[in-house]
Structures are given as structure tokens and as C-alpha cells.
């Protein structure tokens, strides 16, 4: 097995996700899912594996939605995917095609010529009828459709920016209505994204959105690799790259620990050791990790954790978020809320206790922090280490 940081991982080389995938299938028996996880943990890899090796009786369809920027873009993409799937099985997306023809579309020798669209074109009808076609056809075959949609929040943000907040609200409400109406016939969805759904919902609520469009979805927390699987991945990569080591188990253990169980960082560390031409000792691994964390080219893309703060929390809260993260990063132990509040006020930041609690909750949801009965600490030691280095703490 070769190190492939950031590249497409061979689905046959996925390590340590069998139990997670089994848990997803078990959950899907009852309800649809939204996957919560930090970036680079492997959300997309997991759902692609789910799609490639479905349980008997399930029909998964995967789509990356980041490229769609309007509600009609989304509806057409779903229609095309459903129609292609049904056509391959010699079935027809009858409801959707009837709708196309009703609004001016034509079909010549089996090829559908789409009409010209405008702002009044009912995308919601196209989306609904396409999914209804899929559900009905699979129900007749005693199969259950599973829509695997990646980067949903990014699509919703694009729709809100281009067509307004109301359009994004309508997409969310339509999807929830479809899950409610067709769930009894087997329809399930898995929604994932590299930014938190809560940011999209909070933004919509600031514009008067009162619904809870995701409360029917099970919030599945995708964890990092368990320590034994992180070591296994590191061992296989070290062996596959023919890296010199006098103690392969120790080298793999060090890599796994420094990477916090993130497959992406395990691949990066092993690649760095390979390129260095050095033996994989604990000292070498530590030095290379520090070097990559300080590299101005940011090979690990860690500056994303700093850059996204203004986008996620707004200019008004940016200084407070930075200050609270700094306060927690400099301590080895858990930091109490009152301690954080005292330090923020000492810096002249006008944040009261209630505002701080809201910020801490949001930062926790974004996987910077973990909470226990005594207070807060960084969820991932790797992120804490980088935060200290990058902030000069």
C-alpha cells in the first residue's frame, strides 16, 4: 500500500471502517442520516464504500452536490441520475418525463430534449417526481433506494447566495417532505458536508426560517480511526513504501499517535518520511510533523481551521473565538468557562457569559473543542499543537 495524501483511496484499501459502515446500514433500517465529522476524517470515502458494496435489497446512488448552485441545477442533476439508473435497468422515469413534456420538453428516439428554463420553472416538481419514480420502481422490485449526497451544506450556501435564503429554505423543506412521504416505501438519504449543517440552518434562521428540516435525520458522528486501525494503516504504508525502520511497530504507533487517527495525516506523515530518505524513528517522525505544520505551503491544509472562523462566526465574533481558542490552547488541562470569560474580558472583549456559552457550543460543534464536566479542551491534540505553533503561543 502506497501513501496517497489527498488522493482518491482505493476502496479495497480502506482500513478500520467496517464497523462504522455496519452501523450506518443498521441505522438506515429506521431512518435517514446526516454525517457529522471534521474534514479529512474520510466521510466521502466511507459513503463511497457504502455505495460500492451495498447490503442486499438496497440501491445506493452517490452524488457530489458541491458543483450545483441553484435549486434547478440540483433538481436536474437528481433527475439525470435517476433517469440514467432506471434506463440502465430498462425502467422509465415516467412521472418526471411526463412533467418535462408538460412544460415543453421533447423526447426523440429516447433522448430527452430539455426545455428552456426560467425563474418560474417548478424545480420542486421535477425533483419530487424524479425521486418518486425511483422509489416506486424500486418498491416494485422490493428494493430500497438510498440517496448518498455529499457536500450538501456547500450547495445550500450557493443556492442562498445566488437565489436568496428563501430558495435554500425551500430545498430543505422539500427534502424533508420527501423523506416523510416516501420513507415508508423505503426511501433513505445520507447527507454529508465539509462544513457544519448548523451554520447553514443558523444563517437561514437569521432570515426568519423557523422550521427544523433536519430533525428527522439521525446525527451520526464519524470518528477518527481507532488506535489499532490507525497503527495498521501506518504499518501497511511504511511497509508499502519500503521505509527503513528498526522497530516497525514503534514507527507505526508514533505515526498513528501524531496523526490523531486521521487517515489523511497518516498518509502525509508516511509520505514525508519516505521523501526524507531517513529511518522512521520517533525523533524523525516528530521533526517532520513539526516541519510540515510550520511549512508556509501548508501541505496539511491546517490554515483552514483559522481562515474559516471569520466565515463561520462573522467579523463580530472572530476576535472572541480566536481569544477563547488561544486561552484553551496554552493550557495542558481542561479550561473552565469562568477562566475563559475572565481572560476575554481582560483583553477588552465585550462578551457576556451567555454569549460565550453560545460561542463555545458552536466551536464545539465545529470540532475544535471537546467538553467535559470541568470545561473545555481541544478535541484533537494535533490541532492543538498546530494552533500553538501557528499562533505563537
From TrEMBL:
PANTHER family in alphabetical order: ATPASE DOMAIN-CONTAINING PROTEIN (PTHR34301:SF8), DNA-BINDING PROTEIN-RELATED (PTHR34301)
Protein name from the UniProt record: Uncharacterized protein
Tell me what organism the protein belongs to. Methylomonas koyamae
